[in-house]
């Protein structure tokens, strides 16, 4: 499912005969970042000019990508030898390679002392691009590619693999080891534990996909291509798989490389391994509410009166509350099934807000929280202008998310032991880069996929099933019409905090809705989230599990028996052996998922180590961390520490009256539930300017 699909190629024609290579054809570079390319005024005239060229190219169906370049020649050849430096420079300019090498202007220090930018630039004043949107993911280990710089591991069956064992097809790993029909409910935590994880993830990272969903060679859509033709990298379905009757492969496109890495690095006369791009700001800054660029944030703001509000959508019956605004533009995945509904997608700060209904409900909750706070701040400070109200409310919303994440959510994931490793906050450290680590986004944090129930429960005021019934998960993908037509967001939210979550058991990882029915309404061949995660890991050059064990100071591993401390179940070690042959081959994501939980936590040892690494950086490297002295007044911090998801639910759900004080903790209604007026709240009066002139 693509969130954007603008096709932009920049091409030169090459005609060349040399001893080890002969090329006659187009060298085309896929522009890596359309937004910057198009927005960059310097290029706007070229864009229109180029449109004709691109039309011409697609009508001729004559595009060839440079993968025809024989690999063994790389050491002897450089693009410089093929194309003159002037043209290389021109391609780099036109493809957007140079345009997105931004050097942000942090000179408006009065602003940067007070507020975050939308794109995360100027948070770190010495390194203003740290944590910014549209920059490369960080690496804690060098990437591992089949050819050393851009091809996924295992892409060719008899290749340079360092071991004699071929890598298993991701789909086989999924069916043999990941998919499960059996679910064990969590004995302590609610399904909200899962939902906060996904919502948080969508504040942290989204990988930029290839801009085109069609193969470069002839323009055929990747959904109907079963060979590895860039950017398509389909997930093969083995012969004896029930899916094979339907299709030989599942849709997958590679992530967009950073310009100047992978193939395009040759253009810059150097070889850098392929790196991927994070479209979001790394910081926990509520970018899922406000967007990760100035342009996105402007689209979300309501400028009709100077009240600092976000745009509202439809009002809900008998209340002053509103739904999110609709997203304008071409029809999207939300209206694929014309028989079900013509309701378009909702618009929020993250493009994935409609991916499943419970997530949409969370986005609705938080956009309302912004408007609630903004309204209250205006009452307290009628002299503030719209921008001040907006920025102050945004700051409070982001701080609440940090507090909920570190004080309520992480302690349940990491346990006491992990919280000790994370350590207390010791103030801002400008030497820490908060950027999201590639293996965190591509493997570790996808642990949340193992916490998802196959059913979204929908509960009424007394926590019974609503007349429309509960929803099998596949019916909740991209279906915002159900919020409008089937009872609003409350039933979904109660289903999150009123029902146990799924426990990760090493033999029960992903429910079948996710491995067999993912986005089945929008794709003729349903996707498989487990296989996708594994394929994505290889796409991104994520090193195998054993390398991360070394990073994390775990015992070294020579055979599968040596994994017995972390993976106790001999059946699982046996499965790994059958699939991978050698421990050196095991993909990171599935290995992290089959590690046993450390008692009192929801993670295994390697996952713990990766989480600690990332969450320390996100906290310590954020100049606007809510506890960093000077960001808020001490009185304000005291108030922010009253924040809870329970209170946000009470204020902003359609009409929820009863919650647990900690909505991540399971309770049996009505025991353990409180009336909303008993839940502590943030007293916004300490945001009133009353000491003017001091
Ligand atoms: C019903 C719930 C969910 C669905 C349907 C879902 C689906 C997906 C899909 C389709 C992708 C993109 C896969 C790819 O092409 O590489 C993805 C990525 C991801 N998911 Fe989920 N997910 C869900 C819940 C969660 C949860 C609960 C978490 C974490 C606690 C999570 C963490 C992530 C992360 C970190 C990524 C990578 C994002 C990026 O940087 O691109 N997801 N998910
Ligand atoms: C590419 O862009 C740079 C910086 O804007 C400029 O100095 C250079 O002349 C451009 N090169 C070509 C060939 O257009
Ligand atoms: C940076 O921004 C300031 C004001 O925001 C402006 O006056 C200045 O010219 C800008 N500098 C550059 C190099 O763009
Ligand atoms: C919509 O309904 C019509 C008639 O029942 C059917 O022919 C058509 O295939 C349906 N469309 C989809 C996308 O299911
Ligand atoms: C909630 O649902 C249950 C079961 O469907 C029903 O018995 C109960 O009356 C409903 N409560 C309300 C307040 O509608
Ligand atoms: C591994 O051990 C070394 C040496 O004791 C230490 O410096 C390093 O921080 C440890 N790594 C992790 C990820 O804990």
From TrEMBL:
Compositionally biased spans, kind Basic and acidic residues: 294-308
Gene Ontology cellular-component annotations: extracellular space
Annotated compartments: Secreted
A Pfam cross-reference name: An_peroxidase
Residues reported to bind heme b: 449
CDD domains: peroxidasin_like
Lineage per the UniProt record: Eukaryota, Metazoa, Chordata, Craniata, Vertebrata
TM segment ranges: 6-29
Alphabetized InterPro entries for the sequence: Haem_peroxidase_animal (IPR019791), Haem_peroxidase_sf (IPR010255), Haem_peroxidase_sf_animal (IPR037120), Peroxidasin_peroxidase (IPR034824)
UniProt region (Disordered), positions on chain: 294-335
Chief place of localization: secreted
KW Membrane (keyword) present: yes
Domain of life: Eukaryota
Entry annotated with the keyword Glycoprotein: yes
Cofactors named for this entry: heme b
One Gene Ontology molecular-function label: metal ion binding
Gene Ontology process terms (BP): response to oxidative stress
Protein known as: Peroxidasin like
Similarity remark: Belongs to the peroxidase family. XPO subfamily.
Keywords: Disulfide bond, Glycoprotein, Heme, Iron, Membrane, Metal-binding, Oxidoreductase, Secreted, Signal, Transmembrane, Transmembrane helix
